């Protein structure tokens, strides 16, 4: 038994080295044009391809035709949208006259919480994806980190839905405004999650 099991060590090391060199290869940068074509092709498999391309193409230079960097970028862009909505909700809570027997105010308060959490979740996801770009991240650690990032981005979508649902029984201008913004962020989140999902379906 002993000689057999001792052969596993070097084999595992070889596999890890192979995986490391493959992930290092994906970091080799192409030209911006290649990167744009890469972004276009990747975006085509998302639910909102036009929004995907228009929101990500301006950062093509930071993508280097790398699917991990693209998913990272899409998540970063989503964080920007979520933060924008979160601060909008805060300012509405400070300034708007909310009626509806307190129901509108309650829905707004719940949204402030769920969207604040959504920002944190998306940040956790982005930081996890960022760690994937380290050449030392290989094998099962990649799968584990991608899975964490997917879980957190799915939770962001759930939080967006929770905010929208909270306004279901509170029709009015505020509902239209908040739910419209959430619907918009939802598309960014969906796209980022789709690009994240591609990381595991590609491998
Ligand atoms: C995402 O945001 C982080 C933090 O701001 C930044 O360091 C990183 O380069 C960004 N990633 C991409 C692919 O743009």
Residue windows where pLDDT falls under 50 for at least 5 positions: 1-5, 21-30
Strand pairing plus helix content: what structural class?
A: mainly alpha
Order of helices and strands: HHHHHHH
The main β sheet shows up as:
none
Q: Classify the beta-strand content into a percent band.
A: under 5%
Instruction: Please report the number of helical segments.
Output: 7
**CATH classification, class level:** Mainly Alpha
- CATH-defined topology: Butyryl-CoA Dehydrogenase, subunit A, domain 3
Keywords: Hydrolase
Protein name: Pectinesterase protein
EC number: 3.1.1.11
Enzyme class: hydrolase
Give a quick set of tags describing it.
single chain, 203 residues, mainly alpha, Butyryl-CoA Dehydrogenase, subunit A, domain 3, 7 helices, elongated, disordered N terminus, binds 2-acetamido-2-deoxy-beta-D-glucopyranose, EC 3.1.1.11
Q: How would you describe the overall organization of this protein?
A:
This is Pectinesterase protein. This protein has a single domain (2-202), classed as Butyryl-CoA Dehydrogenase, subunit A, domain 3, CATH 1.20.140.40. It contains 7 helices and no strands. The protein has helices at 2-25, 32-43, 49-56, 67-95, 103-132, 140-166, 173-202. The radius of gyration is 21 Å and the shape is elongated. The model is unreliable at 1-5 and 21-30 (pLDDT under 50).
Per-chain topology:
Blueprint: H1 2-25, H2 32-43, H3 49-56, H4 67-95, H5 103-132, H6 140-166, H7 173-202
């Amino acid at each position: 038994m002993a000689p057999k099991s001792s052969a596993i060590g070097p084999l595992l090391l070889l596999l890890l080295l192979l995986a490391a060199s493959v992930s290092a290869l994906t970091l080799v940068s192409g030209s911006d044009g290649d990167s744009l074509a890469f972004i276009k092709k990747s975006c085509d498999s998302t639910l909102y391809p036009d929004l995907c391309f228009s929101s990500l193409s301006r950062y093509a230079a930071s993508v280097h035709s790398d699917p991990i960097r693209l998913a990272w970028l899409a998540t970063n862009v989503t964080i920007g949208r979520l933060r924008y909505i979160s601060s909008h909700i805060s300012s509405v809570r400070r300034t708007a006259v909310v009626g509806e027997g307190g129901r509108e105010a309650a829905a707004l308060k719940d949204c402030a919480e769920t969207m604040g959490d959504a920002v944190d979740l998306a940040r956790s996801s982005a930081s996890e994806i960022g760690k994937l770009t380290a050449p030392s991240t290989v094998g099962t650690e990649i799968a584990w980190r991608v899975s964490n990032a997917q879980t957190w981005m799915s939770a962001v979508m759930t939080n967006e839905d929770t905010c929208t649902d909270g306004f279901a029984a509170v029709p009015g201008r505020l509902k239209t405004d908040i739910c419209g913004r959430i619907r918009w962020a939802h598309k960014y989140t969906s796209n980022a999650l789709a690009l994240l999902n591609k990381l595991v379906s590609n491998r």
